[in-house]
C-alpha cells in the first residue's frame, strides 16, 4: 500500500509502533512499519546502546525516536529531596496508602538505584540535544518526534540539516498551526482514548480537524487504534498512517511484567481512565486501588508536573516489587478492552493489515452496490 | 449504496437523523435517509399532530420514532413541588446562581405553562405504550428506538407483531448481549463524544466492540459523526450506517434559538463537556456560566435523575427567556467544533455523501498502490 507516510520514509505499511521496548521497535521495523523508540529518562550512554542494538537487528530499515522533551519542566528535584520539597500532606497521603495496604519499603540499594534512575526527570532542551547527537550517529533514524509541545528551534534546524524529518504529538487542532509554522514535517493527532498524556477530544472528531488544520502537512492517527478496522477508519478520516502504542504492551516483546499484562488482559475499556495521579498532567492509565485512593473523598489534588511524578515514583516501584497486582498501574489507552491474551508484534501487524484490507474491500462493495 | 440498513428499511443512504424537530425528520427522510423523531415529554395528542405532519410531507417514505423511556424513573414530582421535595441547599444554590446573574423570574403564566409541560417528566412504560399506540396508526414508521435501556418486553412484542423493527442505544459492549437476547433488531452504538447522555468509551474503540458483541445484529454508529469522512470511518469499523444528532442543531430546520446556534458556531470541541447538571445522568452539553457554577469549589453534587431535571428546568427556561447567552446551554456532541454557520439538513446530507464517496475512493487507491 501507499500513503504519503510510506513514501516519505520508504515503508511497506504506514504503521508506526511507539514503544519503550527495543524489541517492539525492531519487530515493527522488520515487518515493514516504523518502530519508534520512546526515550523517557534515558542517558546518552544508554541510548547509544539501545540504538546500536536496534541497528544490528533491522537490516538498514528506517526507524524513529520519540523524545519526551517538555519545553518547561518547572522546578526539578531529586528523588531523595522528596520529603523536603513536596507538601507534607501529599507525602503523608501516599505513605498512608502504602502503609494501609501493607506494602513494604524498598531495600536500601534498590531505593538508591531508583533515585539514580529517577534523576532522568531532569529533562531539558539541553539534555534533549545530547540525545539528538547520539541519534545522529545512527543513520537509520529518519524521524524524531517531540512528544510534549513544540521542539526547540535549534533542534528542528539541526535535524533538518541532517536530512531527518521532525514530528510532534498534538491533541487539539488549535496547536496545529504553531507546529506547522515551526517547520514540523509530520503531526501525530492523538485522541483522548490514547494511553498516557492525552487531551479531551476523541479521535473520531479530532483527526479530521487536525488533518484540515495542518494541510498540507501529513497527519498520523493516534489513540484507539489496535486493529485493522481502526486503521481503515484512520485513513478514511484523512490520516496518512497510524501511530499505535498501547497495543504493543500486550505482546511478548513488551517491557511489562507478566503481572501487569495479566491485569491488562482482564480489563475493559472503561478501566483505562484519565487521571493526573502518575505525572501531574492528565494521563490515561489503568484504574487500580492506587488511583481509587486518589478518587476517594478527602484525597488531595495531584501536584503539577514534575512534582507529582517525584511524589509517586517510589510508591509505584514499591507496589511493583511487592507484586500487589490490585495496586499496579500503567499507562494504557481504551483499546486495553480488546487485549485479551499475549500476542506478538508481528502478529498484531499481520492481523491489522488483513482486517484493514477486508474493511476497505467491504467499503468499496457497499459504495458500488445499487 | 447498500448496507444491511438500507436493505432493512428500503433507504437510499444509511443515514439516520435524530431530532426533536419534525422539519429535520422530514428533510432527512426526503433525502433518502431515515429521520428519527425524538419524543421526550410529549403527550399522545401532541405526538399524533407531529406524526400527521411528517406523514404529509414525506411521500410514503419510512421514518422512525425514538422514545426516551427509562425503565425506572424513581420518584417523580411536579415542578410546583420543587421547593418541597428537593434538598433545600440544592434549591438555594440554583436560585443563587440566577440571582447573582440578575436573571429575572418567569412571568406567572409562563411559569404555569412550563409546569404543565414539565409534567412530561412522568415518563413510564405505561406512558410509552400510549405513544406506541399512536405510532402504530402511522404505517410509515418502520423503527422504534428505546434511548435508555432495554424496552419493555410487551412493547417489543407488539412492535414485532405489527412488522416494525426495534432499536436501542447502548454505550458499552457489555449491554449488547442483553439487548440481543431481548430481540432488538438494530443496536445504536453511541460513543462518549456524543451529545446528551453518553458513556465513557469513545466511538473509535466502542463501535467495533459492539459490532462484534452484537453480531449478527446490525449496528449503527453514533457519536462524533457530522461529515462524510466520519461516515466512511463508521462503515470501516463495521457499522451498517450512521446515527447523527448534534449536526442537525446547526441547520435552519433546527429547533434551537438563534442565540443558542450562535453559541454553538463559536464553540470548540473542548467546549462540549460531560456533566450531570441538566438531568442527573452523565450528559454531554455546551459549557456555560451555568455549568461552570456547578464546577466551582463548594458547589453541591448534582441530584440523581429525575430530581436534577426538576431542579434546573425552570432555571434553564429563565436563562433562555432573559437571552443571557453566556448562561445558555444545550446538549451537543464534540462535533460542535465543526459547526461554524447555519446549514440545511439536505446540504449536510449531500456534503456527507460527497465526502464519504471521496474518502472510500482514496482508501481504495491507497490500498491498491504499490
UniProtKB/TrEMBL annotation, chains A, B:
It is an enzyme of class 1 (oxidoreductase). It comes from the Bacteria. GO terms for molecular function: enoyl-[acyl-carrier-protein] reductase (NADH) activity; nitronate monooxygenase activity. The keyword Flavoprotein applies. SUPFAM superfamilies: Inosine monophosphate dehydrogenase (IMPDH) (SSF51412). InterPro entries: Aldolase_TIM, NMO. Pfam families: NMO. Keywords: Flavoprotein, FMN, Oxidoreductase. Its EC number is 1.3.1.9. PANTHER family: 2-NITROPROPANE DIOXYGENASE, MONOOXYGENASE RV1533-RELATED. This is Enoyl-ACP reductase [FMN]. It comes from Piscinibacter sakaiensis.
Amino acid at each position: 500500500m501507499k500513503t504519503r507516510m510510506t513514501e516519505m520514509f520508504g515503508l511497506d505499511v504506514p504503521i508506526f509502533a511507539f514503544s519503550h521496548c527495543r524489541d517492539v521497535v525492531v519487530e515493527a521495523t522488520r515487518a515493514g512499519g516504523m518502530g519508534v523508540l520512546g526515550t523517557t529518562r534515558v542517558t546518552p550512554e544508554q541510548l547509544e546502546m539501545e540504538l546500536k542494538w536496534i541497528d544490528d537487528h533491522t537490516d538498514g530499515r528506517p526507524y524513529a525516536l520519540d523524545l519526551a522533551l517538555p519545553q518547561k519542566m518547572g522546578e526539578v528535584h531529586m528523588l531523595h529531596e522528596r520529603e523536603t520539597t513536596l507538601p507534607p500532606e501529599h507525602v503523608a497521603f501516599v505513605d498512608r496508602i502504602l502503609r494501609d495496604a501493607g506494602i513494604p519499603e524498598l531495600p536500601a540499594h534498590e531505593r538508591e538505584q531508583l533515585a539514580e534512575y529517577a534523576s532522568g526527570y531532569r529533562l531539558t532542551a539541553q539534555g534533549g540535544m545530547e540525545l539528538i547527537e547520539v541519534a545522529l550517529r545512527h543513520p537509520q533514524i529518519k524521524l524524531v518526534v517531540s512528544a510534549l509541545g513544540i521542539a526547540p528551534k535549534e533542534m528542528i534546524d539541526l535535524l533538518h540539516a541532517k536530512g531527518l524529518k521532525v514530528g510532534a504529538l498534538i491533541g487539539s487542532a488549535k496547536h496545529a498551526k504553531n507546529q506547522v509554522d515551526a517547520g514540523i514535517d509530520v503531526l501525530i493527532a492523538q485522541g483522548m482514548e490514547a494511553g498516557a498524556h492525552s487531551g479531551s477530544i476523541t479521535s473520531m472528531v479530532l483527526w479530521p480537524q487536525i488533518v484540515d488544520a495542518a494541510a498540507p502537512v501529513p497527519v498520523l492517527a493516534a489513540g484507539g487504534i489496535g486493529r485493522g478496522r481502526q486503521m481503515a477508519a484512520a485513513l478514511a478520516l484523512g490520516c496518512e498512517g497510524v501511530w499505535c502504542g498501547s497495543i504493543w504492551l500486550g505482546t511478548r516483546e513488551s517491557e511489562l511484567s507478566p503481572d501487569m499484562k495479566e491485569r491488562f488482559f482482564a480489563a475493559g475499556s472503561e478501566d483505562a481512565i484519565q487521571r493526573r495521579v502518575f505525572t501531574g498532567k492528565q494521563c490515561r492509565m489503568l484504574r487500580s486501588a492506587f488511583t481509587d485512593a486518589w478518587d476517594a473523598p478527602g484525597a488531595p489534588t495531584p501536584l503539577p508536573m514534575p512534582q507529582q511524578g517525584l511524589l509517586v515514583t517510589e510508591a509505584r516501584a514499591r507496589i511493583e516489587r511487592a507484586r500487589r497486582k490490585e495496586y499496579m498501574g500503567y499507562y494504557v489507552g481504551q483499546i486495553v478492552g480488546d487485549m485479551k491474551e499475549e500476542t506478538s508484534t508481528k502478529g498484531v501487524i499481520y492481523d491489522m493489515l488483513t482486517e484493514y484490507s477486508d474493511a476497505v474491500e467491504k467499503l468499496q462493495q457497499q459504495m458500488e452496490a445499487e
